[in-house]
Amino acid sequence: MKVLMIDVFxxxxxxxxxxxxxxxxxxxxxxxxxxxGHNTILHSQNTIEKQLTFIEGVKFVAEKIPDIPVRLxxxxxxxxxxxxxxxxxxxxxxxxxxxxxxxxxTDKNEIETRKAEDIKLKEMxxxxxxxxxxxxxxxxxxxxxxxxxxxxxxxxKQRAMRxxxxxxxxxxxxxxxxxxxxxxxxxxxxxIKIPVTLCVGEFDEKFLEIAIKMGAGFNNSRIxxxxxxxxxxxxxxxxGFKRECL
Length: 246
What we know:
The protein is of the alpha/beta class. The protein has one domain (6-245): Alpha/Beta hydrolase fold, catalytic domain (Rossmann fold, 3-Layer(aba) Sandwich), CATH 3.40.50.1820. Helices cover 39% and strands 14% of the residues. The chain has a 6-stranded parallel sheet with strand order 2-1-3-4-5-6, with helices on both faces. Helix 3 runs antiparallel to helix 6 (167-177). The protein starts with 5 loop residues before the first strand and ends with a helix. The model has no long low-confidence stretch (mean pLDDT 94).
């Protein structure tokens, strides 16, 4: 009997499985994985007990993926993890959908600058222990400016989700999965033979440029531009995202 493919979803930084609810997905063929360090107050199994490297964190997430045909979907930090999982040997992944993904920094100066920024974020969390202050800073980043026009209910749900995390664990997640600590996978994209969909919001110019460059590196890829959305088309235009990417 043929085994049906299931969809496995990985959220982004400060997210949780709750993020995907806006898409009203069927639970029969969907599995939602939380990144280490996230939602640890409710789910202690996500706790980072010791400092993780990026690859160790990726393998931790990969172990949660069942050994049946899988379509792997990741957003932002979760997309970077999904990309790395697709490069692991002997996985059951048959297709990946990467939303607002980055393949890793290549320039040494950029790497050091971003690493310093990530360390600063980590120290802010460890010193202040204040998720409210951190989330207020985070949601006011330029990359999220299009989310200012989200319906109030959607915006408030996202803020509540971000506030639900434990500061020390989010600090550890930055240390593991921050872009400054991520290997550069841009030269390894051709090793991925399965179909790849790169999803990006039409207003997210930086990540649209990244998607175009990445698309040229894969063997079998397509780019889907989601209208009326920025860095997170999942919540900014759920209907359009679901129609174009799933």
